[in-house]
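Students often ask why inverse folding is considered easier than folding. One informal answer: many sequences map to the same fold, so there is more than one right answer. In these notes we will look at a single instance of the problem. The structure comes first.
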């Protein structure tokens, strides 16, 4: 089976090709044709109508949507979330857990694995464990009742149920340095989050392979002129990747501009941090068992008003950074897919080039998603 997508404005890291065509053979991109090149015959042709064809978005930090959490007991939840992610142009994601007891995490992993083996929406690249090894002073919307010391054996038990892609934890907690050292041998990505580490504590983690910050600026040490903290580390250290929730709530437009000015763009990872209210109206919800109120799209704990995930969609995040930074799309599109693939050690996702997986999102000028192809098959 071959598919020829014609009349597309191809936007891939470092290039923009108006009037281009993309030949897909099976699940992979076979060739990209610039405007004017003669096109081959294909078993199916899709007219993109001049819209923007981008690498399908990757979202490595997503707790839920459409009223469901990835950690729900309901075995349908991950499928419902994954199918809704297609509407944002997301072709693969990491269902993200919360600070919960191991039995509950194990049950979540079984549900995630069942979906991962038989996907109908966005594909699962592996689970993101957010917590439970975080700092009690920086829980945000994570339930403090289930905090515990970093435990590689627990992570490996969960990993045996379904692959863990990355884990967010606090590097300054007892046992976290040893945990980081051991994690380096597992292929599981280490990310520092919900943390009040000093810059020096983070640097000690960096020497052991820690190179990533979870929802940059949120629930981490602020930049102070005598202790630059993790916000300072994220801005200063060129090798460190930073997750950014670009909803203009978790990060102000000025902070977004600052990060894009200072960081190598290849180290910026757009995430949604979406919670269950994503795709639904304002109202009363919950996150990991904690009551949450969503008003004007901002999700906050009912108890203390702390931000409790987002209702951000990945296509909106891209639109926001286009508006806020004014940078060209072939640069910004790196932050929605290619950078994620590099961060997770995946070499064939995130570009529209021959040999890459045909995960593609078609967006109009308003960044609304018109079509989505996963492994070369149209799924939206
Ligand atoms: Fe978080």
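Output (designed amino acids):
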């Amino acid at each position: 089976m071959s598919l020829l997508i014609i009349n597309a404005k191809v936007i891939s890291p470092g290039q923009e090709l108006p009037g281009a065509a993309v030949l897909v053979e099976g699940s992979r991109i076979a060739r990209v044709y610039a405007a004017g090149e003669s096109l081959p015959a294909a078993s199916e042709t899709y007219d993109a109508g001049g819209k923007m064809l981008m690498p399908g978005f990757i979202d490595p930090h997503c707790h839920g949507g459409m009223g469901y959490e990835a950690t729900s007991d309901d075995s349908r939840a991950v499928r419902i979330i994954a199918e809704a992610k297609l509407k944002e142009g997301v072709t693969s994601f990491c269902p993200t857990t919360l600070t919960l007891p191991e039995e509950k995490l194990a049950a979540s992993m079984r549900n995630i694995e069942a979906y991962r083996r038989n996907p109908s929406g966005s594909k699962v690249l592996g689970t993101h464990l957010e917590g439970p090894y975080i700092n009690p002073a920086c829980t945000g919307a994570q339930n403090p009742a289930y905090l515990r010391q970093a435990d590689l054996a627990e992570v490996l038990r969960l990993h045996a149920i379904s692959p863990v892609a990355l884990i967010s934890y606090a590097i300054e907690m007892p046992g976290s340095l040893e945990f980081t050292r051991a994690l380096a041998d597992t292929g599981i990505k280490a990310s520092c989050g919900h943390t009040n580490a000093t810059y020096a504590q983070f640097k000690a983690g960096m020497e052991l392979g820690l190179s990533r910050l979870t929802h940059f600026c949120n629930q981490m040490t602020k930049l102070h002129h005598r202790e630059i903290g993790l916000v300072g580390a994220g801005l200063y250290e060129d090798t460190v990747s930073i997750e950014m929730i670009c909803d203009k709530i978790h990060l102000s437009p000025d902070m977004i501009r600052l990060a894009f000015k200072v960081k190598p763009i290849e180290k910026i990872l757009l995430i949604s941090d979406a919670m269950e209210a994503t795709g639904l109206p304002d109202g009363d919800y919950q996150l990991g068992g904690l009551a949450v109120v969503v008003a004007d799209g901002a999700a906050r704990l009912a108890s203390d008003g702390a931000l409790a995930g987002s209702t951000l969609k990945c296509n909106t995040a891209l639109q926001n950074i286009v508006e806020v930074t004014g940078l060209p799309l072939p640069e910004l599109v790196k932050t929605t897919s290619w950078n994620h693939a590099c961060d997770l050690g995946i070499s064939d996702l995130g570009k529209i080039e021959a040999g890459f997986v045909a995960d593609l999102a078609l967006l109009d000028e308003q960044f609304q998603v018109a079509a989505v192809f996963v492994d070369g098959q149209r799924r939206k």
